[in-house]
Amino acid sequence: MPSMATGNNNNNNNQFVNRKNKIDQQRKSLPIASVEKRLVEEVRKNDTLIIVGETGSGKTTQLPQYLFNGGFCRDGGIIGITQPRRVAAVTVAKRVAEECGVELGQKVGYSIRFEDVTSMSTRIKYMTDGLLLREALLDPYLSRYSVIVVDEAHERTVQTDVLLGLLKDVQKKRSRSSNASNNDHVKSNNGALVKEENNGQTSSGFKQQLVKKLNPLKLIIMSASLDARGFSEYFSGAKAVHVQGRQFPVDILYTAQPETDCLDAALVTILQIHLDEGPGDILVFLSGQEEIESIESLVRENLKKLPEAKQKLLILPLFSSLPSEKQMKVFTPAAVGFRKVILATNIAETSVTIPGIKYVIDPGLVKVRSYSPDSGIESLIVVKTSKAQALQRSGRAGREGPGKCFRLYPESRFEGLDDSTVPEIKRCNLSNVILQLSALGVDDIIGFDFMEKPDRMAVIKSLELLYLLGALTDEKKLSDPIGHQMARLPLEPNDSKALILASQFGCLEEMLIVVSMLSVESIFYVPREKLEESRAVIKSFSSPDGDHLTLLNVYRACLEFLEKNKTENSNDKAEKNLRRWCKDNFINNRSLKHARDIYKQIRENVERMGLKISSCGDDTLQLRRCLAASYFLNAALKQPDGTFRVLANGQIAEVHPTSVLRRTKSECIIFYNLVQTTRNYVRNVTRIDYLWLAELAPQCYALKD
Ligand code: CDP
Ligand code: MG
Questions:
Q1: Which domains are delineated in the chain?
Q2: Which UniProt keywords apply (predicted)?
């Protein structure tokens, strides 16, 4: 029926036009819109510019478009915008593609570890700061970029800090090259990514590529913290411009007493707001995926007990490993009569701005990396936020009108908070940074021009770790081939080493799976009320040898399931059934999906490196020996009281309750992570023979007798 079809089309067109109009209006009303011309002018005049503006003023989504329209991509150059978080890179790129009315991956794209959505025509490219660092390995002049915007610089993640140092250097090199006369061509280390001017063949048969005169690199540092001084000093007095924000008053409410159970307090507050307060969405800050998923099921349970009319609450999680179509859901307005409650990690503090938020619930905690140079062991710990973070969080409630922020702690505690957060470089294991910088030709880490120098002891310890892993030579240079191979893999040094060794141990197939499964948070998902039921189901995967092998079993079972359900040309159906299978087996479908993606990527990586991929089949002894040979620093011995003593530093820890080895009789284990809450826990644990340590890691352990 043609007439109906036309009607539908018209309808769609109208919807499309309406949405486009609405977006245009939103864009025009952003605080940054009134200074578009001035910003473009300032970027033209200054090679380095600092832009400071409140969260939500439009920095991340608008500035790249202004620069594009201002002609900064005219010579084919790309505007690169780095984000500390994957989620931000993805969601913002999607939004900007929509604003520009283009397909994602064309003019506007993003690139994050394990996912590249860009093409030859991409001119506005959002990416993680870590990814740009990796690109610098291949293209030391970052010659494809005309502008680089380092976004969220106030977060001061370790990757941002390294990037700032590197960019400063690239900028110098590029301006030298642009000042050189036209005849002085600059030769690049890797011609593949640079513009060719002359592609004559050299005698060795390699294409010799000479680089066209490079334009100076425009560098923009964007930050939500109002203090731009630090950045300005670091960049030799670079100019800073402030974008006026718009902030409505936010009522701050505290609890009378400290809360003992944060999850419970958050749950009660969500329900209270939902039942007693006027319309407006709720944003809750939680420390990680696990807390988010616990609260999600608690709220669902409690909602069911309410009268039907009061059940109109839409619960939306937001964390890094969430598939991106789910991440985007937080930006869509809820249906009429519904209230959204967004359960987010720190992502929502400044990285992404969600429209419609009127209520913020802030338990005052954040998960951070913590490193003790004494032990050389890094752990994830949950700590109190700084004052600056608490203010950022409450600010999220006052973007579109007056709002309320419920801090789940007493007012007296706020006064005692640190003013601002310590940069991550001061509290993390630096071995990855050292590896990356060494690969970029920076051998003297202590002498590197960091905005804030890392601790000397932490540097020494991290160097020692790399040395023990065989990545560095006695002269602190990258070893060949191990160090170079490790630097090429987008993983932590320990994991890279495990893969390299596994090819020698004949178990690379299995190690690829294990490393991928360890890269995601919590493969098993157990709702509180189903604790007992889940135990029995999960047991069917569990290996008496430990969690690494249990994860391997889960992955293999998943492959087997997909194989069995494979019908002709219907992968979708198998995937759909897999979701059901995951649910029945208390497996976190999103985490498993993510692990499968990671597996594919790192498999490609090791294939390209020429590592031999073979399988040890059911001979998992080899796999355990390989784990011992790679994670030897994370070895622990059993104490008479059943706890474990970490050999590297004497720290006492318990096996985490979620581990299959929680009641193990084994004398010696290796673990993947150490988490500190009220107690020390080791997670992802595997049983080993302590004699293996002396045999496989003699650089670290010797037999006394
Ligand atoms: O970077 P900054 O915090 O200054 O702001 P932004 O991220 O550019 O956000 C500008 C506006 O775009 C905000 O009002 C957001 O709510 C909106 N936005 C959106 O509606 N959907 C997205 N996926 C991203 C941003
Ligand atoms: Mg932003």
A1: 21-178+214-243 (3.40.50.300), 250-422 (3.40.50.300), 528-608 (no CATH)
A2: ATP-binding, Helicase, Hydrolase, mRNA processing, mRNA splicing, Nucleotide-binding, Spliceosome
